[in-house]
């Protein structure tokens, strides 16, 4: 299949944007697939109400079909058509954080096919903040099922070129535009329980939600790689965000972390295996390895979040066999944004953490 790549700039004439979005929307309405930017990561969109579109999404990504998709809407009226009930706490979260990087899990109505929800009677819904994403959803008929626009198992795409690397030739269209300023996927919170449960941490943190609606739980599988408890959502059982090289997270006092990583890097490099490091700006000068990425200052979690997936893809391109990363939150127990970054990093590392 030939993939049409369409560039849209914020400075384009409104008629030109409308024309391109009409074409993109019509592809979705006819059952095709279009990748589009959002504020979190690029999404791979299909008609959420069309079972055939869901099947195509799974095929294009090479993703198991029991891994449910997030349905993207652009307004609250459309939300009411696809969910049975909007609990008061969800109303409050929506008032505060929608449109934005928050996904909520509700009981679904019959309008949403089981193909979209991986067989579940619940549906995950998000209203994106990104202006182009929001417009696109409207042109596409209002309900766009969209997982991240990467091949299954690869890091989520934060640039159009990542989408092209993974999906060129597999989908109908890629919208190339600015986006993904956040750089990691939305927070997912299940609001069907009395006490809402975070299934995936993100930019909207546990602390932010708790201040608004009281207690919010964190699913045990979020940080515990070998939890005996079965995952609550099918998607949670899959390894995600993985680079090709072996990734290890190193935790401890900064000097000890640098000393350990340098020792390992020297051993690997001596054996002819290229080694990469994800370092805070504060430690950058201390490392010796083939590839050293600057994750920004320790005190700014936003910057590492925005760049993490780009780093993982760059390591792949640079044939890095071993990757070592510093930790980006002082304690896994904090209720801030560091949780989301550490969750992605630990998943990419298959939960390999070394304490020094
Ligand atoms: P992605 O689309 O790649 O950002 O991943 C979507 C993730 O959302 C899935 O892997 C699931 O973990 C989660 N999800 C989607 N729908 C549901 C649902 N109905 N219940 C629980 N989790 C869901
Ligand atoms: Mg994904």
Topology:
Layout: E1 4-7, H1 14-29, E2 34-36, E3 43-47, H2 51-61, E4 70-72, H3 76-82, H4 88-97, E5 102-107, E6 122-126, H5 131-139, E7 144-145, H6 160-167, E8 173-176, E9 187-190, E10 197-200, H7 206-213, E11 217-218, E12 246-251, H8 254-270, E13 275-279, E14 291-294, H9 301-317, E15 322-326, H10 338-348, E16 353-355
Parallel strand pairs: 1-8, 2-8, 4-6, 5-9, 10-11, 12-15, 12-16, 13-14, 13-15
Antiparallel strand pairs: 2-3, 3-7, 4-7, 5-6, 9-10
Helix pairs in contact: 1-5, 9-10
Strand order of the largest sheet: 1-8-2-3-7-4-6-5-9-10-11
Structural class by secondary-structure content: alpha/beta
Oligomer: single chain
Helix content, binned percent: 25-40%
Overall geometric form: globular
The pLDDT mean sits at 92
Structure characterization notes:
This protein is α/β, with parallel strands linked by helices and 356 residues long. It has helices at residues 14-29, 51-61, 76-82, 88-97, 131-139, 160-167, 206-213, 254-270, 301-317, 338-348, and strands at 4-7, 34-36, 43-47, 70-72, 102-107, 122-126, 144-145, 173-176, 187-190, 197-200, 217-218, 246-251, 275-279, 291-294, 322-326, 353-355. Helix content is 32%, strand content 18%. A hairpin with a 6-residue loop joins strand 9 and strand 10. The chain is globular. The termini are far apart. The protein binds adenosine monophosphate and magnesium ion. The site of adenosine monophosphate has 18 residues, from strand 6. Magnesium ion binds at residues 147-148, 156.
Short account of what is shown:
The chain has 356 residues and is α/β, with parallel strands linked by helices.
